[in-house]
Design brief:
Largest sheet: 2 strands, antiparallel
Strand order of the largest sheet: 1-2
Helix content: 10-25%
Bound molecules: zinc ion
């Protein structure tokens, strides 16, 4: 098994980890209800995708939770 000859310095470790940052997720605006949604996915608020209704949103559950 490959084995490190010597310990990496903290500078080298920190330089490697500069690329580990989390990226901000991209979002799009729903063409139907103008809500912020994930792109290429059915809108979770109105159930529309590409201007057409795809799924029905159960509003009773949303009313009970809130
Ligand atoms: Zn929508």
């Amino acid at each position: 098994m490959a084995h490190p000859k010597r310990q990496h310095s903290r500078q080298r470790q920190r330089k490697r980890r500069t690329h580990y940052g989390a990226s901000v997720p991209s979002f799009a605006l729903c063409s139907q209800c103008k809500g912020s949604i994930l792109p290429h996915r059915v809108c979770p608020f109105c159930g529309y995708y590409k201007g057409q209704p795809v799924i029905e949103i159960k509003q009773k559950e949303a009313a009970e939770k809130s």
